[in-house]
Amino acid sequence: MDIKKEEILHIAKLASLKIKEEEIEEYRKNLQDILEFANIINSVDTEYLEETNGTSTNINFLREDEVNNFKDTDQLMKNAPEQENNMFKIPKVIN
Amino acid sequence: MSREDYEAIIGLEVHAELSTKTKIFCSCETNFGGKPNTHVCPVCMAMPGALPVLNKKVVEYAVKAGLATNCEIAPYSKNDRKNYFYPDLPKSYQISQFDKPLCVGGKIEIETEHGTKQIGITRIHIEEDAGKLNHDDYGRNSLVDLNRAGVPLIEIVSEPDLRSSKEADTYLKKLKSILQYIEVSDCKMEEGSFRADVNVSVHKKGEAFGTRTEMKNMSSFRSITRAIDYGIQRQIDVVENGGKIEQDTLRWDEVEGRTYVMRSKEDAQDYRYFPEPDLGTIEVSDEWKEEIRKSLPEMPEQRKTRYIEEFKLPEYDSNIIVSSKYLSDFFEVATKVCNNPKSVSNWIMTDIIRVQNEEAVEKMPFSPEQLGQLIVLIDKGTISSSIAKKVFEELLKQPRNPEEIIKEKGWIQISDEGEIKEIVKKILEDNPGSITDYKAGKDRALGFLVGQAMKATKGKANPQLLNKLFLEELKK
Ligand SMILES: [Zn+2]
């Protein structure tokens, strides 16, 4: 499968990325490489395998509904480049 | 062509927050409010390497909702990643369910003007809520609070069976009452814990369905009804004028009463769903399913039948009472106290519903026990029904034991015959004209005299006794 220019633009839009015209070809080539690498898996013969429900073999790995609040939320807030009223301050989001 | 030549198709995707103690994939508490970013941890804040673990209660509650809406419960189901970029979604994907939801193929019944109608439920799946974006005072920045990120939701998708805003409204109210009955969600619309995406399309009768538009995240019955009516009319106008409906995502503006295009089809989201590799398979065995089924409480329909058969309540009253879990529970408890279901129902149908409408609240400040005690006082003849109305007003102002209220206010009914006789004599002395009138055949004079006696005793005189003694005196 060949990745087209339009797909690069579409993916960039979904990821809210601005890319320059001259960068498109480079991204296209890189993504094409990744796709081809990942496509190797498609050559495996899976005829004899049963279909699975997901990627994990765990079944009902569940926890009880018991509160255990994380103690060091201040540490987590240190990831905020800027904050106000204990909230992450980010550029205004327009829908 | 006119409005009547068109048919509208409405589909609803309801999101209800589950009332678990903790979030769906971490042990953070879910309480609404609280200081921003205090109910967070590396999992719901999407720190690299943090791994989600599914809350067992979430599966139970979703299965409960599925059973209560007549769904099939999938023996095996799984989670998927729904990818999109938005700052309230710290992982840039939402863990949801795509092709293997927990519950499928259900239905609920609603009452319409054309009788009972079945509304199909396509599916119910579990997913996580996003955080909340606030805006700073200057409108230059957004502020992100992740307390709500990871709060469990169920999404309930209806079949395109609804045909009007009225039907959609009835369906939503029914669904809300079911979720409240089974106690999986408090459905507080004002806190956003019950909200809906609304799909609308129109077509000429007998023709194929039209293109649908979607309105996101509506959170009041009133705006949903208005938005649907507006959407239907707008689409008919477009078609009538030879235009074409675009498959847009719209935003409803409650103030202006119109919609704006949020996203056109070209910009349609491409969510690139794929199986969540950090979570395993969910298996709901027949055993587990039956255990959950046993935990289902008596449902509105069953309660209604019991009210009609056992308590002899009218169907209309029963319908209204069971439509709200709050009213229905209120009825049950008050009836236990006074053993007079008919009277409890009358108080609910008149005074309680009046207060709910006037004050725009659901809950009364007083308890159902207190209403029950009030009814006991009426039934024992301790107070008259007009005093009872005053006690009711007092319960609204300052809820306390009705017996205390009447003692404190001196409102105990006068049922002592000697005492009442004195009052009757006094009133007759003061109103000789009324005696003449009565003897001249004017029955209204009796009513006037009783009224005067009531006024003199501030409504405390036993009305039956008053009537009887006045008649005795007047016949002399
Ligand atoms: Zn957390």
Keywords:
heterodimer; A: 95 residues; alpha+beta; Histone, subunit A; two-stranded antiparallel sheet; B: 476 residues; Arc Repressor Mutant, subunit A; 3 domains; three-stranded antiparallel beta sheet; 15 helices; 40% helix; binds zinc ion
Describe this structure in words.
The complex is a heterodimer of chains A (95) and B (476). The two termini of chain A are 33 Å apart. Chain A has 95 residues and is α+β, with helices and mostly antiparallel strands. Chain A has a domain at 5-42: Histone, subunit A (Orthogonal Bundle). Chain A is flat. Chain A is built from three helices and three strands. The longest helix of chain A is centred in the N-terminal third of the chain and has 19 residues, at 21-39. Chain A has a two-stranded antiparallel sheet. Chain B is of the alpha+beta class and 476 residues long. Chain B has three domains: 3-287, no CATH class; 298-409, no CATH class; 417-475, Arc Repressor Mutant, subunit A (Orthogonal Bundle). Chain B has a nine-stranded mixed β-sheet with strand order 3-7-8-11-1-12-13-14-15. Chain B has a three-stranded antiparallel β-sheet with strand order 6-5-16, with no helix packed on it. A two-stranded antiparallel sheet of chain B has the order 4-17. In chain B, helix 7 packs antiparallel against helix 8 and helix 9 (368-379) packs antiparallel against helix 10 (385-397). Chain B is elongated. At the A-B interface, helix 1, strand 1, helix 3 and strand 3 of A face strand 2, helix 1, strand 4, strand 9 and strand 10 of B. Residues 23, 26, 28, 40-41, 43-44, 150 of chain B line the site of zinc ion.
